[in-house]
Write a structure and sequence with these properties.
With 480 residues, the chain is mostly helical. The chain contains 21 helices and no strands. The longest helix has 34 residues.
Length: 480
């Protein structure tokens, strides 16, 4: 094993030497490392002066963690140039053939490139952060706690692995450096949007929720590394000379996968959709387990901690006011006239598509997080109903199960299909390109959504609009 890792180090040393000789990478990296911390400090100082005029202490307290997050991000964006050229650059320079003909395993080549591609921006980011902290320590700004420092440290590492591993995947799949560099926006823009969400959590001050972001980004980065290893093919790098966007082939291939072997609607459901459901067996089992833990955990946490929280405040009236507000929210007197089936259907379909969208770009990770949040919300609402004196069991039987037996499976099927896309992408499949694997997985998702999810959501919307309100009125009216 030591000898194999030594070969990885040889590739890393060679890649590091090439990067240190490239002024296009070194010059911007040095400028950002040495200059950007002072620019960020000037920005922070201006914000502090402005916020102090209006008593914005909360903003000031969150400013240093936000600045650290931004300072750690910018050097990584510059270093993407080296990662994007890691394989396709070698191909254009004519040095890829000796490298690929060497007695090195695919994982050794890939890991050697990844180590240098990630280590260089991380070192630059940490130096820039250290300079910023030295400057900030001499000013009247509150430093973050140790857990926040740990979160920012892990997020910086995860961002580097995420962006560099994605850049290497693009480098493997591209046929020219120009094409690889054009694809850089598909890395920077999603990560920038991700950082907007993380910045919101920092200013919100909820460090517990921020741990979910740390875990999610780390998992996605690991899956991207796995994706690159799974689809690294030496023959593919040497054989392709030009990229072509063949929409006709894509449409024909997608339709072939979507239709499957069924020649009628019945055969399509029985053979094609049935075959897809068998593929989704393991993701569905996982989602059922996650749903049970999310629902029971959120219900137990609110039921056991919320009364103690209000009791610790020493004002019993606040707890009474909470019960009154919850009772008011659970007033179903005019529920029937406010809900209609088309609106419910469109809302649920939109939520399902949003979960699928975020899951598609994160190998299902963000989709699972949104799924867990949706299921947890049900547990929170039932716990609040119990605190207000309403029977959770009665609400489940009358307010959730009638339409939930259709709506919840639809949500699970959609999430499982998105998870399946991530799973097949990171699974090695010899002789098949990433595009072919992705088209088949998207066809499986489309089968499930069009064949099962949409009909289930339609039935759930009708029941939730016309049957559930009456059942709730009867149950609440009987004093449950």
């Amino acid at each position: 094993m030591q000898e194999r890792l030594h070969l990885v180090w040889l590739i890393s040393k060679r890649e590091l030497r090439d990067q240190l000789r490239d002024w296009r990478i070194l010059a911007p990296l040095l400028i950002l490392t040495m200059v950007f911390p002072f620019l960020m400090n000037s920005f922070a100082y201006g914000v502090v002066q402005f916020a102090n005029q209006y008593g914005g202490n909360l903003i000031v307290d969150r400013l240093v963690p936000f600045s650290i997050l931004i300072i750690g991000f910018f050097p990584i964006t510059i270093s993407l140039l080296g990662a994007l050229e890691s394989f396709v650059g070698e191909k254009e320079r004519g040095t890829i053939e000796p490298l690929l003909s060497s007695p090195l395993a695919d994982w050794q080549l890939y890991l050697g490139k990844l180590i240098v591609g990630s280590a260089t921006p991380l070192i630059s980011s940490f130096i820039a952060i250290a300079i910023y902290l030295v400057v900030v320590s001499r000013q009247q700004l509150n430093m973050p706690d140790a857990p926040v420092f740990i979160q920012l440290f892990l997020l910086t590492i995860a961002h580097a692995l995420l962006m560099v591993s994605a850049a290497i995947v693009f480098s493997i799949q591209s046929t020219s450096v120009k094409a690889a560099n054009l694809l850089a926006s598909f890395i920077i823009i999603p990560v920038a949007m991700l950082m907007m969400g993380e910045s919101f959590l920092l200013f919100w001050g909820n460090n517990q929720v921020l741990w979910l972001a740390v875990i999610a980004v780390t998992i996605v980065a690991g899956l991207l590394v796995r994706l690159g290893l799974a689809h690294f093919q030496r023959e593919y790098l040497l054989g392709r000379e030009i990229d072509m966007l063949n929409l006709r082939w894509m449409g024909r291939t997608f339709w072939g996968y979507f239709k499957g072997e069924g020649h009628s609607l019945f055969e399509w459901y029985f053979v094609s959709v049935g075959g897809t459901l068998r593929k989704l067996a393991k993701p569905l089992i996982l989602l059922v387990v996650l749903a049970a833990f999310s629902f029971l955990g959120s219900f137990w946490w609110v039921d056991n901690n919320l009364p103690d929280y209000y009791a610790s405040k020493g004002d019993p009236q606040e707890y009474v006011d909470l019960k009154e507000r919850v009772n008011k929210e659970f007033d179903f007197g005019e529920l029937g006239g406010e809900i209609n089936a088309p609106t419910l259907f469109l809302h649920n379909a939109q939520a399902t598509l949003v979960i699928a969208f975020f899951g598609l770009f994160s190998f299902g990770v963000l989709g699972i997080i949104l799924y867990i949040l949706n299921i947890s919300l049900i547990g929170v609402l039932l716990a609040l109903a119990k605190i207000a004196g309403i029977s959770p069991g009665a609400l489940i039987l009358a307010g959730i199960l009638p339409h939930g037996i259709f709506e919840i499976p639809a949500l699970m099927l959609s999430c499982a299909a998105v998870m399946n896309i991530g799973l097949v992408l990171v699974t090695p499949q010899a002789g098949r390109t990433v595009g072919e694997v992705l088209l088949e997985a998207l066809a499986d998702w489309a089968r499930v959504v069009l064949g099962l999810v949409i009909p289930l959501l339609a039935v759930a919307a009708v029941i939730e609009s016309y049957i559930t309100p009456r059942l709730l009125l009867n149950v609440i009216g009987q004093g449950f």
